[in-house]
Design a protein that fits this description.
The protein is 36% helix and 13% strand. α5 links the parallel β5 and β6. The radius of gyration is 18 Å and the shape is globular. The two termini are 25 Å apart. The model has no long low-confidence stretch (mean pLDDT 96).
Length: 309
């Protein structure tokens, strides 16, 4: 099957000596994806909880995490291509290799390095994580606080550089202000539906409709607290159905949040090796072949080919 996942924290979470992206004890590795996925594309996040760090150490910690992520990717060049464009993704797949993109999860951790975000190989970025920073307020802290003036300026700079903005951790107000700032497609790489589960990290229907109107991407998150309801894969499918009911057949994708959930998945999801089981659950729920392929690869793949360069 074809597989595209819009968000994983694996590159930050591989910490056991000797473990690699090829094989590790995290939620995701190439040994497992190669058992079922061809082609395969992954957006990997570089992340750090800035609230746990002294402000003066942020950029230093980011650079350490970035170098480690780059080393992990480059060590797998026989199986994977670190891509900067949709064309490079297509080339990687033509060579029988996986494709990887980098996202920064909370640009504030970059410090002054944000000025070199494109040069460093990032093509996706989130203005905030769960909490507020100098650019924006995260969804968990306060939904009514949005972008700062510095955040609006930074967002404009990122858009001018061709960086795709990701609203998954952004507050409701922040998302609305981004919509007002630009009409380009945005993504929510790993967020579900608030009407199904009322967690603040999930999306309001108004936001979902706007992402659909723009032709963005909404990646379904597998974290148990965001899924809610039944503690199995049927609950994930309920979120998919909700997006589909709003007209989202062409924007619905997967953003499992592997290695960002501390293993707290619904029953039936153990790690990336469970994707074929989810695929079968989608079929059992009445999803046709075309729809399954759109969700698992085609929608996100089409977005990247059109908007990442």
């Amino acid at each position: 099957m074809k597989y595209f996942d819009c968000h994983a924290d694996t590159l930050t979470e591989i910490t056991v000596p000797g473990e690699t992206l090829r094989k590790n004890t995290c939620d995701l590795d190439l040994t497992r994806t190669e058992q079922f996925a061809a082609p395969y594309t992954q957006i990997f996040a570089v992340w750090e909880n800035r609230n746990l760090l002294d402000g003066e150490c942020l950029e230093q910690e980011f650079c350490k995490n970035y170098r480690r992520a780059a080393e992990l990717l480059m060590a797998q060049q026989d199986r994977l291509v670190w891509c900067r464009s949709g064309a490079e993704m297509e080339w990687a797949h033509s060579q029988g290799k996986a494709a990887a993109f980098l996202s920064v999860e909370d640009v504030s951790i970059m410090g002054n390095a944000v000025e070199r975000i494109r040069e460093l190989g990032f093509r996706f970025a989130m203005l905030s994580w769960n909490y507020k920073n100098e650019y924006a307020c995260g969804a968990v802290e306060n939904q009514k606080r949005g972008l700062t003036e510095a955040g609006r300026c930074l967002a404009q700079m990122l858009l001018e550089q061709g960086i795709v903005l990701d609203i998954s951790h952004l507050s409701d107000r922040g998302a609305q202000e981004l919509f007002e700032l630009t009409d380009v497609p945005l993504i929510a790489s790993h967020s579900n539906v608030r009407d199904i589960c009322s967690h603040p990290r999930n999306l309001e229907n108004e936001v979902i409709r706007e992402l659909i109107r723009r032709g963005g991407i909404i990646g379904m998150n597998f974290y148990r607290e965001f899924v809610g309801g039944e503690k199995n894969t049927e609950a994930i499918i309920r979120h998919m159905d909700a997006v589909l009911e709003l007209g989202g057949e062409d924007v619905l994708a997967l953003g499992g949040d592997f290695d960002g959930c501390n293993g707290a998945f619904p029953e039936g999801i153990r790690g990336v090796e469970s994707i074929p089981d989810l695929y079968e659950a989608m079929a059992a729920a009445g999803f046709g072949q075309k729809l399954k392929d759109k969700i698992c690869y085609e929608n996100a793949g089409r977005f990247v080919k059109k908007h990442v360069f």
